[in-house]
């Protein structure tokens, strides 16, 4: 079995080492005996992303995001075709904004997105910066998700696009409605760096399972012993609770233990 991961704009969109998400997906697949090919998709190339089972796009600074926005417009139809054929998409921060309708800057300029998510983003006066704790349903009980946000954009979801997570601690999409990220079908966007999937191995496995469904197999692969990952998550919970002056909740081990 072979899994193909397309890494969109790895040199332009790598804020807070978002490329780590690709590394986590690759490692967790290989540890299960699944062959993985990572395909670079750079601005100006002619890569056909319909051959990818999963597409990953990170975040970047304003200049890089503008460059990517122009290239994405030329690649829009190809990405839409890939999504229609079952490709999973994960986009972080600036990449997330570009999956929506547009990003409106503080000066009123609108940078167009590709409309995979029915959402739009406007610049805010205050940046939302810091650790985030959120809750996300992974085909069952709520999973506690950790990440780090640093963005001034406020993202608002239109009818037809669901929030991906609910904020427990942090700003999330806009700091006001308690939502974080967005999902529509197999397209997911979030403001959470971390890298996100390093801090949340069960989320990584869930996305891998969706990508493997495209090949007709699904997520019935073997479990991994995530002892160190879970210890790190427990430490992070305690640390955030201390900062907030709260009693530390327990983060369960879920289904990744043997």
Structure description:
- Strand 1, helix 1 and strand 2 form a beta-alpha-beta unit.
- Helix 1 crosses helix 5 (201-213).
- This protein has a single domain (2-130, 148-221), classed as 3-Layer(aba) Sandwich (Rossmann fold), CATH 3.40.50.880.
- The longest helix is centred in the first third of the chain and has 23 residues, at 62-84.
- 29% of the residues lie in helices and 30% in strands.
- The chain has a six-stranded mixed sheet with strand order 2-1-3-4-12-11. Strands 5, 6, 7, 8, 9 and 10 form a six-stranded mixed sheet that branches.
- The chain is built from six helices and twelve strands.
- It is α/β, with parallel strands linked by helices and 258 residues long.
- It has helices at residues 20-30, 62-84, 94-99, 196-199, 201-213, 227-244; strands spanning 2-8, 35-41, 54-57, 88-92, 102-104, 110-112, 119-137, 142-157, 165-169, 179-180, 182-184, 187-190.
Q: What's the CATH class label? A: Alpha Beta
Widest β-sheet, arrangement of strands? 2-1-3-4-12-11
Please, how many helices? 6
Share of helix, binned: 25-40%
Largest sheet: 6 strands, mixed
Taken in chain order, the helices and strands follow as EHEEHEHEEEEEEEEHHH
Radius of gyration: 17 Å
Query: Stretches where pLDDT falls below 50 for ≥5 residues?
Result: 252-258
Name the CATH homologous superfamily.
Class I glutamine amidotransferase (GATase) domain
Proportion of β residues? Answer: 25-35%
**Can you tell me the CATH architecture?**
3-Layer(aba) Sandwich
Number of strands: 12
Structural class call reads: alpha/beta
Subunit structure: Forms a heterodimer with MurT.
Pathway: Cell wall biogenesis; peptidoglycan biosynthesis
GO molecular function, one term: glutaminase activity
Pfam families: GATase_3
């Amino acid at each position: 079995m072979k899994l193909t991961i397309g890494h969109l704009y790895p040199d332009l969109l790598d804020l807070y080492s978002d490329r780590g998400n690709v590394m986590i997906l690759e490692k967790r697949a290989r540890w299960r005996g699944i062959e993985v090919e990572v395909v670079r998709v750079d601005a100006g190339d002619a890569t056909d992303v319909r051959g990818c089972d999963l597409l990953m796009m990170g975040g970047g600074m304003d200049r890089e995001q503008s460059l990517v926005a122009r290239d994405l417009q030329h690649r829009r139809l190809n990405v839409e075709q890939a999504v229609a054929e079952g490709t999973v998409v994960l986009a972080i921060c600036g990449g997330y904004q570009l999956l929506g309708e547009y990003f409106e800057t503080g000066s009123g300029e609108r940078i167009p997105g590709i409309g995979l998510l029915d959402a739009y983003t406007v610049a805010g006066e205050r940046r939302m910066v810091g650790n985030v704790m959120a809750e996300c349903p992974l085909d069952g009980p709520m999973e506690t998700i950790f990440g780090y946000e640093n963005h001034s954009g406020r993202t608002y979801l239109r009818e037809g696009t669901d929030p991906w997570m609910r904020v427990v601690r942090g700003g999330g999409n806009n700091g006001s409605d308690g939502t974080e990220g967005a999902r529509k079908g197999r397209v997911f966007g979030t403001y959470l760096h971390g890298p996100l999937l390093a801090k949340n191995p069960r989320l990584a496995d869930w996305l891998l399972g969706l990508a493997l469904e495209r090949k007709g197999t699904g997520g019935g692969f073997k479990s991994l012993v995530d002892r160190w990952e879970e210890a790190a998550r427990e430490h992070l919970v305690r640390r955030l609770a201390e900062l907030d002056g709260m009693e530390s909740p327990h983060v369960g081990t879920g289904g990744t233990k043997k």
